[in-house]
Specification:
By secondary structure, the chain is an alpha/beta fold. The chain has helices at residues 2-10, 82-85, 94-105, 111-120, 127-143, 148-156, 199-212, 226-235, 245-270, 275-281, 287-304, 314-335, 337-341, 348-353, and strands spanning 21-25, 39-51, 54-65, 76-77, 161-168, 176-182, 188-194, 217-222, 240-243. Helices cover 47% and strands 18% of the residues. Helix 3 packs across helix 5 (127-143) and helix 11 packs antiparallel against helix 12. The structure holds zinc ion.
Length: 357
């Protein structure tokens, strides 16, 4: 009885919607920050994050030090870029928190108004969650090294710090919420909302952290924005500055993306005529009809496959799938199998799917 009541109370009214995007994150740093031996990819963690751009399924490749003599033996090290998406164990992304904060404090909107705005952006959220997110925003902004004692204790046992720096701007013209975090302890060191994202402003934030920390900042991970680069160069000249893999790939893929999009469009033109052959077989259930039906289904599903950019661009994926279908049709033609059964339609599938149709 109690169990069922509890479950009912806890049941969600709105289940988390399907993810529209999958992102796989690996650790940029793969050596143990303590003993410098390789950290193995030990297990994958998965979480869904609701962002302003839809629901993202994150797949995180968590690494752990395998050196039994190391202080960090078996302690998980999660991908640095995870922090860009959401706070630990949070369902709503940091961009939504930044959005709520910007709406509340810059545009002076009420909770119901912010709720309305988010709903109009197709984000499935309750009013109570908006209130919770605003509380998170307030907490974040006040984190900023105020929890002195606790943080100092954590860093005493750590030899170094790896900073991840990221700015979230929900809208052009809004203040940017800068979040700076240590990738080893997973602690947020500082979060601040500032209107300008100039190198000079960022330098002040990084300097504040540097002065506070009892251990050196060995490395910085960011999207490589020029103001961040300059600020890091000036305040932490000795630190290694690594571009986040995600941003790096996204930049690298830009020229390929355009070419792939074009190829995708052209390829789709070639197989537009999938409907007429499907219609022409009607309700027929003979072997040939089933064969045509399956080929049409194969073409159709390859058209809706969006691939997994940037590593598996949709145009290349489509080309691969269509080539397989064409090869298969060629085999049918060569083997002459349909010809034995029904001579007039021996090249029916190929004809049906040929560009002329
Ligand atoms: Zn170690």
């Amino acid at each position: 009885m109690w169990v069922s009541i509890t479950i009912q109370l806890m049941a969600r009214k709105n289940p988390v919607p399907q993810a529209s995007k999958k992102v796989v994150l690996d650790c940029i740093r793969q050596q143990c920050p303590n003993c410098a031996r390789p950290m193995w990819w030990d297990y994958s963690a998965s979480r869904k994050v609701r962002t302003l751009e839809g629901v993202i399924q994150l797949r995180l490749q968590v690494r752990r030090c395998q050196n039994k003599d190391c202080e960090r033996y078996h302690q998980p090290y999660r991908p640095e870029a995870e922090a860009k998406y959401a706070l630990p164990v949070h369902e709503f992304g940091l961009d939504i928190i930044a959005f709520c904060g910007a709406m509340r404090y810059q545009e002076h909107r009420s909770v119901p108004q912010i709720h309305q705005q988010l709903r109009s952006r197709k984000i499935n959220i309750s009013e109570r969650s908006v209130t919770n997110l605003l509380n998170r925003y307030d907490e974040l902004i006040s984190t900023s090294l105020t929890d002195n004692q606790r943080l100092r204790k954590i860093f005493q046992n750590q030899k170094q710090v790896i900073l991840s720096i990221d700015g979230l701007q929900p809208h052009v013209g809004h203040e940017v919420l800068w979040v700076i975090r240590d990738c080893i302890s997973e602690e947020i060191l500082l979060a601040r909302s500032i209107l300008s994202s100039s190198a000079a402003e960022l330098e002040l934030l990084i300097k504040e952290i540097k002065d506070f920390l009892p251990v050196p900042i060995e490395a910085v991970i960011s999207d490589g924005q020029s103001s961040i680069r300059k600020a890091v160069e000036n305040v932490l000249p000795a630190a290694v500055h690594q571009l986040c893999h995600f941003h790096y790939l996204r930049e690298a893929i830009k020229p390929i993306y355009e070419a792939d999009r074009h190829a995708n469009k052209e390829l789709k033109k070639l197989v537009r005529g999938v409907r007429p052959p499907e219609r022409s077989i009607g309700d027929r259930e003979d072997t040939e009809a089933n064969c045509i039906r399956k080929y049409c289904a194969a073409v159709r599903s390859s058209l809706t496959d969006r691939g997994e950019p940037p590593l598996k661009p949709p145009g290349i994926k489509l080309q691969e799938r269509l080539t397989k279908i064409a090869d298969s049709l060629e085999n049918v033609e060569k083997s002459g199998a349909p010809a034995r059964r029904k001579p007039p339609s021996k090249d029916a599938p190929r004809r049906a799917l040929s560009p002329k149709n």
